[in-house]
Design a protein that fits this description.
4 copies of one chain form a homotetramer. Chain A has 382 residues and is of the alpha/beta class. Chain A contains 12 helices and 15 strands. Helices cover 36% and strands 24% of the residues of chain A.
Chain lengths: 382, 382, 382, 382
């Protein structure tokens, strides 16, 4: 008799993420960090030998060289996986997600959700029909300071939002791909695997997602100026955008993969009539509040005065910095808690990005490219 | 017999800057700081009583209640002023400058240069015809770190410039004017005295000037989205812009006077192919360099390794922070050195903004307003 | 037949760390984070019910209500634990470690190593005799920036070390225990469980360990002024010390648990003749280098230019901040790698604190207390 | 008839500060910055030619090659100086001050006040007898953030002070003097001109003065470990001290002139039972408050919420950074205001360091040297 799902760690499978892939290891650590799940099966590479070696390095119980076979067999296995993690290049997100959803297995998928908008729209339908959980990993939402920011905006502590500035600058595509050694660089800049955009699709979407998540305001229209600075690069490696949001707020979004010397310089500033908020991903444990007419405040993760939303996703007391892996693990914490609910016949509680968010992200990418191609003109976001 | 100009402090006059005006005192301190000039005469207010009291408070030798009379009399006075400082609201810059130039007196003028573009164009002609020095006070250029940044870009240390981000966010117009106590707020938001723009004219121009000064690249076109957030305000208090620069560089510029909690948050980041540079006016003694593939560097004002341009405008050794007044004083140092040259029959050396820069600044303001009125579309900068 | 130890995750047990204890969860996460071990058994509380509930919450295979019984049974179990984690109050460290070592089970122990110096000396003997691995968890050594600092000092990049400043300020004992809600506060300030010192024993030792680890210099003598500021507190909650190190270097160490508003403000500055190094635990991903006559440098964790020692303990690329849990996990990574070596008949490689370091830490605490009791006079460190 | 003192700038003279001397120019700028005084006479060097050239470069009305002659003649001159500035090496402070005080001229003197304790005690008597103003320039007291800190402590906002940490680290004496190019290095390290201490006398006293000024607590005893690290240097270039203050507070003070890469890294942290305060001279416009159980606060110079003491010494609105020269000028502002009072027959108001503070500073230096020579033992401060 299978063990009660609430009395054991959940079993996860992974597609992609073989040796050398950065994001595969991140998903494993994040998934397992709270002691609520273990990765036990994988189709970690389309190359059979590499798949096997990757699975062995992770001590997986079961290794596959085909995600379709994996979906099929895990669905039948008495101790089959409870959910699958998709950590492949963008062009495989859709077929993999479809295969597992149709096999009745819940899905946690890396972003952007799909290769193109058509797939994204279709996937939303498949998810709905399946009744299963589909979660998209925008890890920055998992930082306690981001949860705190969202809660403060929602509680009206900033007053009306007037202006938002988001930046996400990196430099890992500073050079043409031939001159870099990063495996990821190859497919990210290849339209056949990455889709219509490199920079906006990869990191611009994080900015968009973070902005809408924290402010609760939708982007209504945008004017985007995309550039491919590196010689011979077919996709954008930089973008500057103007934004108009609901309720009359204005904003700007800058993202770049050729910003020399930048790590993951993701920053957001939200200006309201009563206070503003500022957060920097490189110092994620702190949130700066600038209230009208009073001193600036630095709110520290893990402090007693933080709100419930932030506390719920905090692991260590203040002064013990949490980082990117913990933020990523927080998404898994929320997802796994929902998986336990659903598997126990309860209702999902959410709190993590879903297929709807994924579709919105895809639309953002498509609209940014459309705006830029037309000469950086204003286009509406549906 | 008048004393040799090189054996005495120069004599300055001031128009405007009466009691309660922030910028008047700044000009006096900056002008006198290096011990090269003294303010001795003034028409500090159009209100006669206030003019007299302001002059007495500054121990001036001569006080006027009309700038025209001042120009006329000082030109004839055996110990008349060597130059005049214009620190009035924008709408008076032109007539005051004209009066003094036509009286044969050199001019140092606050920015923006004039009330509108027509005046600016006319003033350039008047200056040319006069053969006198006309200097515009963009004080941020006076910071040693800015001089260093400009020199490093010029020396090719950043490689090709690809991307520039400039921000200048404040909050002093967060509330409608009626609710603030700042004297300046009144005329800044009044189209009859400030001109076509408040925020872009007041601080956006600082951003534009700083950007072009450091990068040596002209803005070729811009797409500007201006907003008046405060209820009832006739002029913009916020702007977001996309920029296209010479040589294919791209950029963005954000300025705001309603960014709750911000002081004078003027920041610039310049991204090149070999290195990037970052400077924050609120910590002006440091310049951050992010070279490709090497650790970030913090260059400290006053250090032995700084370049000649920065050293030439440095007063105290490193570790003794210089601030805004010193930067402002540096403009005066350069201007006064030129006045000494010119008065000794030598050629001016420059290094400070001139009427041409002032005209360019006015064009920037006009074009930003034009772009925004047309729906935030791209417009060319001549 | 038992599975090859190199083809499976190691099995860990834990003593202490029951529900509500901060450090227990930290050990579990750190131990499991790299996917190299799983906690499968525990004696998590001396209270049987709490022990059972804690074990169930962690999905442990086996729960004990006595650490002696656990040592005995695990030693015989065919799938018994490979090592035990000790996460109890200080006074239990010795008996637990002794029980497991004598049962032939490797030990990972929280610091300070023992209740008093006598136990520490005895434990060193027991470890030696056992031939087993005994590792002490000073987690700050696990930060890549700390590894980098140590490597740079060792390579002579700082020249001769002249001065070292270490601080570790917190505020969690600001109030008398009765007024705080932290479980840990109770035993930390109780001489019967914590030993001769609270503040120096708890965090001063981290400072001493970090200082000697990075500089490679031993403390030769110290002059310590300990204080109990909170009314009625029997042990120190604050200390200021002067240090004299090998090779003529001087230093100071400050630690406090009543420094209002401080989180875990652990900072170290090492001044050499050629460069200095500065590291702040609250921004652990960066290391500041101040070379003679050149700009300050900020070295970022995960960057290509970092040395091998730092790279070996780096999980995510630069820009994805790592935190305290990752640093803690790095100790486990090094320990587990050694466990695999030893269990495969190879020689241990070390790189983590051992019983000798634990003994040195205990001596430091005892000498600090001795110095202070004598009026803050100089005492020698053996 | 001499002009009413309140209707003119005061006239200052200077002794020392000839070409090449850093501190001379600082005094001139600071003295004149607020437009309340002008330097008009000087004995700027004991070398007659250099004295003359220095005076000419400053456009002084009167130049002397002997301070005694200057005192004598200025006392008789109908437009003689109102006060003298002493900017010589330490060994001349006393004779110069004595000469001017006895000539009936007020004195502003650089620190440390005298060459040795005997002189200091004698000078206190001379000042008292003279009835004149004697002010000592500890410029760091002039920063608005320091004024704010002092006011907050005095108002009880920190509760009881428990712990204070002060540091002042520089590196300008990193090398033996023969290898540096700084003129000042020569006399600072020469016992015949600097006195019994180099580092403690030069910058340790700033730390002591700042600490007592902000906290209002006197140092009661100290234990100081002074070192001469540079080969062949006869005086200390580094010191670490433990402090015991009034009301049971404890502290530490570190100062160094061989701290590689440090500029003027002057920092103070004051820990109370209700809040702590932190200030860094390198970012002087901000004061960090860490209140118990609430977020950290950053108080910005020039903000409306600042207290009266800080506002009284603030020149520019927030966001326009002030620096070292402005802080120095604030001392002069307070001193000149008192000179106006005294010359108008009113009572001095104070607010700047006096001869009593200078004597205390000298005692601190002497006691630190005494403690260190005895093996770094505790000594009482009278």
């Amino acid at each position: 008799m299978p063990q009660d799902v609430n009395k054991r760690r959940l079993r996860a499978g992974i597609v992609g993420g073989g040796a050398g892939a950065f994001i595969g290891a991140v998903h494993r650590i994040a998934c397992e960090l709270d002691g609520q799940a273990l990765v036990v099966a994988g189709a970690m590479s389309s190359d059979a030998k590499r798949a096997k070696e990757s699975a062995a390095a992770w001590f997986l119980d079961r290794s596959y060289d085909s995600f379709r076979k994996m979906a099929e067999e895990e669905a039948k296995h008495p101790e089959g996986i409870d959910f699958v993690i998709i950590a492949t290049p963008n062009n495989l997100h859709f077929p993999v997600a479809k295969a597992f959803l149709e096999a009745g297995i819940h899905v946690v998928c890396d972003k952007p959700m799909t290769f193109d908008l058509k797939e994204a729209e279709e996937l939303v339908g498949i998810v709905e029909k399946s009744g299963l959980i589909f979660a998209l990993t925008h890890p920055y939402l998992g930082y306690p300071a981001v949860q705190q920011a969202k809660a403060m905006v929602a509680a009206g502590e900033l007053g009306e939002i007037r202006k938002v500035q988001v930046e996400y600058n990196q430099d890992w595509l500073l050079e043409p791909v031939a001159e870099t050694s990063r495996k990821q660089a190859e497919w990210r800049t290849d339209p056949a695997r990455a889709g219509v955009s490199c920079c906006v699709g990869d990191i611009g979407t994080h900015g968009e997602n973070l902005l809408e998540h924290i402010t609760g305001l939708k982007i209504q229209s945008l004017c985007a100026d995309l550039t491919s600075f590196a010689p011979g690069r077919p996709l954008d490696d930089d973008a500057n955008m103007l934004l108009r949001l609901e309720k009359g707020a204005k904003g700007s979004l800058s993202c770049s993969q050729i910003a020399c010397g930048e790590e993951n310089d993701l920053n957001i500033r939200v200006y309201g009539t009563k206070a503003s908020i500022e957060w920097h991903q490189l110092e994620p444990n702190y949130l700066t509040i600038k209230p009208k007419g009073r001193p600036w405040e630095t709110w520290g993760r893990g402090s007693a005065y933080m709100g419930d939303a932030a506390k719920a996703v905090t692991r260590t007391p203040h002064g013990h910095p949490e980082g990117y892996l913990e933020a990523f693990a927080t998404l898994y914490r929320l997802i796994i808690a929902d998986l336990r609910r659903v598997k126990s016949g309860k209702k999902a509680a959410g709190g993590y990005p879903t297929a709807e968010d994924g579709l919105r992200g895809m639309r953002f990418v498509v609209k940014a490219v459309e705006s830029s191609k037309a000469g950086a003109v204003w286009v509406e976001m549906p």
